[in-house]
TrEMBL record:
Its EC number is 1.1.1.-. GO terms for molecular function: oxidoreductase activity. It comes from Blautia intestinihominis. The keyword Nucleotidyltransferase does not apply. Residues 194-391 form the Fe-containing alcohol dehydrogenase-like C-terminal domain. Residues 9-180 form the Alcohol dehydrogenase iron-type/glycerol dehydrogenase GldA domain. This is Iron-containing alcohol dehydrogenase.
Length: 394
């Protein structure tokens, strides 16, 4: 195992109607003006933005609003938010929505607090932020885990580049008010895509080529089983509060660093491969991950089939015996069968993309930063490897 540091400073208030505490919570933050940042029309139509605004008004806290965040959040919206915050002397950002809204809020926080450079430089990793406006979160989807993480991913429309800022604790939310009932109105596709994202945040850290901690492996395997079990329940019972609560808390635990303790940080190749799909074709993140994972797994598993066999046995109860390779492949197939059972794609074609060789090459070229980097640690992948995985995923 690798030595590690674990830091999870976000205060979590979890349960029914927890979001209605927002006025009292913000009073304790001593903020003077808040940006309420949110996504599409559903947050307004459901009455959630009115509820949040009313709580702030009752608490005597001034605010401005900025909606319109889309999946794969855009740099142009971030820049709009930065200017709005500067003009209005905003000193706190409240993200009401899913991972896209939270990531956009983090980027705005970076941009306002570091006026000496353009915010996109933090996503190109040519600059490092030195500050961030404080951020609070009311999640409306269980997926990204951004409510407790130190990461943020933004898409630049100029070239359709989807990039993540360097991990930085400055952007970790101060608090997350987590009410599972706020996820009831999500379409089934978004709910199940979120479940895949949660699983992938765990698997990216799980599939490493070093000796890991038994306790970390056990937490990860249990978390994956919990998500798989409850994702299937939500296919039948979308208003099942218990299942929603299990998934929501799993989303936070999957991406707050807990499942990476002692694993050296994880692989993240699948996320890098999917980022190019999201940037170029605007696909739903979890669905894109489902479409690419099986091809990645079959391409790399023979580096350490024993690790994949452990996954198959401990997550899907597949007997191992002495044939690690057969068990590993059975585990990969079991995960794809699960994706199918929740109507997630297991190929680019099922994702709605029928790509030719030139388009595959473009994805690999962008993912490799024009053939200047490799990705992954389970098996390091160069541009040619990336091209082969995208091709297998067709």
């Amino acid at each position: 195992m690798r030595s590690f540091e674990y830091f999870a400073p976000t205060k979590v208030i979890f349960g029914k109607d927890s979001h209605l505490q927002i006025g009292d919570i913000l009073k304790k933050e001593n903020c003077h003006k808040v940006l309420i940042h949110y996504g599409g029309k559903s947050a307004v139509a459901s009455g959630l933005i009115d509820e949040v605004s009313g709580c702030l008004t009752d608490a005597g806290i001034d605010f401005v609003t900025l909606g319109g965040v889309v999946p794969n959040p855009r740099l142009s919206k971030v820049r709009e938010g930065i200017e709005l915050c500067k003009k209005g002397n905003v000193d706190f950002i409240l993200a009401v929505g899913g991972g896209s809204v939270i990531d956009s809020a983090k980027a705005i926080g970076y941009g306002v607090a570091n006026p000496w450079t353009d915010v996109w430089n933090f996503y190109l990793k040519t600059e490092v932020p030195t500050a961030c406006l404080p951020i609070g979160v009311i999640p409306t989807i269980a997926a990204s885990g951004s409510e407790m993480s130190n990461s943020s991913v933004i898409t630049n429309e100029d070239g359709w580049l989807k990039r993540g800022a360097a991990k930085c604790d400055l952007c970790r939310p101060k608090f997350a008010l987590m009410n599972p009932k706020l996820t009831y109105s999500l379409p089934q596709y978004q709910t199940e895509s979120g479940c895949v994202d949660i699983l992938m945040h765990t698997m990216e850290r799980y599939f490493v080529n070093i000796e890991t901690m038994e306790i970390t492996d056990s937490i990860s395997e249990s978390l994956m089983q919990t998500v798989i079990y409850n994702a299937r329940i939500l296919m039948r019972e979308p208003d099942n509060y218990t299942a929603r609560a299990e998934i929501m808390w799993a989303g936070s635990l999957s991406h707050n660093g807990l499942t990476g303790c002692g694993t050296g940080g994880g692989d993240w190749a699948c996320h890098q491969l999917e980022h190019e799909l999201g940037g170029l074709y605007d696909v739903t993140h979890g669905a894109g991950l489902a479409a690419i994972w099986g091809s990645w797994a079959r391409y790399v598993y023979d580096v350490n089939p024993e690790r994949f066999a452990q996954f198959a046995t401990n997550v899907f109860d597949i007997p191992c015996g002495l044939d690690f390779e057969k068990t590993a492949l059975a585990g990969i197939e079991a995960m794809e069968d699960f994706f199918r059972s929740i109507k997630m794609p297991v190929s680019l074609h099922e994702l709605g993309l029928d790509l030719d060789d030139q388009q595959i090459h473009e994805l690999a070229f962008k993912c490799s930063y024009e053939d200047t980097r490799t990705i992954g640690v389970f098996k390091q992948l160069n541009m040619k490897d990336m091209e082969k995985i995208y091709t297998l995923a067709r």
